Amino acid sequence: MAAPKKGRNASAQSKPGRSLVLILIAIVALTGGMFASGHTTPRLGIDLAGGTSITLTAVNEPGQPNAINKTNMATAVDIMERRVNGLGVSEAEVQTQGDRNIIVNVPKGTNSEQAREQVGTTAKLFFRPVLQREAAVDPAATPSPSASGSPSGSPSPSASTSASSGDESASPSADSSASPSSSATSQGRAVTDALKADETPSASASSSASDAASPSPSASESAATDADTKLQAEYAALNCADPDQRTEAGQGAKPEQSTVACGQDGGVWNKFLLGPVGVDGTEIDKAEAIFDTQSAAGWKVVMDFNSAGAKKFADITGTLASQTSPMNEFAIVLDDEVVSHPYVSTAITGGNAEISGSFTQEQAESLSNMLSYGALPLSFKESSVTTVTAALGSEQLHAGLIAGAIGLALVVIYLVAYYRGLALVALASLLISAALTYVIMSLLGPAIGFALNLPAVCGAIVAIGITADSFIVYFERVRDEIREGRSLRPAVERAWPRARRTILVSDFVSFLAAAVLFVVTVGKVQGFAFTLGLTTLLDVVVVFLFTKPLLTLLAKTKFFGKGHSWSGLDPKRLGVQPPLRRTRRPVAPVEPKEA
Length: 595
Known about the structure:
Layout: H1 2-13, H2 16-37, H3 46-49, E1 51-59, H4 70-86, E2 93-97, E3 101-107, H5 112-120, E4 125-135, E5 159-161, E6 168-170, H6 182-186, H7 203-207, H8 219-237, H9 243-248, E7 259-265, E8 268-274, E9 279-280, E10 284-292, E11 298-305, H10 307-320, E12 330-334, E13 337-340, E14 352-359, H11 361-373, E15 379-388, H12 390-419, H13 422-448, H14 454-483, H15 488-520, H16 524-554, H17 558-561
Parallel strand pairs: 7-13
Antiparallel strand pairs: 1-3, 1-15, 2-3, 4-8, 4-9, 4-12, 5-6, 7-8, 10-11, 11-14, 12-13
Helix pairs in contact: 2-13, 2-16, 4-5, 12-13, 12-14, 13-14, 13-16, 14-15, 14-16, 15-16
């Protein structure tokens, strides 16, 4: 049985080149893939490259105590990612932190204000019929209208149709539609108060609350009358010139309820009494920002409804077309603020509409982007906004690289001082590990969005010690075999099984710690855990496919095999004693006994 075992060992020792060729092929293939992809450097995180970090906190909505849950948070992250990516910001990071926070990292070179609008705006869009409209400021120039009249000094929006194409759209004219102010698109306001009315007022009821009462009202009619009266009182007391009242106007109104709202029209704030929702923004199939070269409208947002939305839009525009101003208008309400209120002269059955006005290109693209990807399932408030300049990120990266260089230099000094010639094996292994880490990080950037941040750099520095520890374990096992009187070549093979078990156990513990840290933490700490886990796996690959085969080959050389004093494997320096030879004691002659 001894002979076959010896043959297997000899075979194993004679083919270390296969492992070295295999890892060389892997390095060449990964490097080729890196250059082919065009990403020759790792993608840097926001703390190194510079940019803006936005922390959003979900807020509870009245009547929905369980709205903040894992599913809704995941949906919000997905919508935010699609919104930001829709702006062409492909390297933005959106991730949850804890159970109610979302962190959005926008790299430098991106319009951070536009990105903040995209991620922070709830974008709940409704089409509601206008029951009353009244100017809140500048009463001399714009007298307050009655329920059946429009304000003078401000031309009403118009509806445009195209019989030849078959597509009809309702749009405000360029000089009369609501100007999309920054507050209309940059604030995602939560629904905080709900109207207590069980039934909503109709258009005729809203014109005069007393008309809704009958001589012998039933309980439901009385409730509707009370609701009408309360809503009329709220409308009469509303002053849209007050920013606080503008913020609170319409909050808490359910889609089936009438409500009040504010909207800016040509620099003048109007207050609106609006009926129940006619069409929900979720029924928009597609929205696109286009520049109208045929009129003075400029930038506008063109919307296509799905089949259900198209039918509802046709019904509500058909109803409004028979009304008088302002009750022939429908309000486009975005996050409780009226952004436009075009009037309708005929039913629009084409299944599409447009929002036009004093839009800039950026405002039109932001609005269309939000409408295309839908409203957020939750409302959020900005908890913090941090801007990191590129100069600060460069300084942090420079400091991290210096720290890594110092750590590597200390490891090299220790290896050379203690292991001498074996330090060459360790350094070559560290270089192979560093090359693999760099190439893989460069490829993971475009593949999975991995970004090298400062904690990830710290993880790579810690990995230097972990990798060096594996070499030390193997070297010490080889030295133990030499101390027992074996030559280098057998010592290298006999030490490997014991060293292998120790290395695997040690790396498994490190990888397990990294995996747990990655799962239970969020944000930048995950970068540290990911890098630590990656480098731990690479340590196993390098030790098995490079360090051990290389030492096997070096054991055949005279410098290492004969135990040169600078090889690190000198038997005398390791305290090996020469074998003791027994000396024979002289035997005294035996004298013959006398008879």
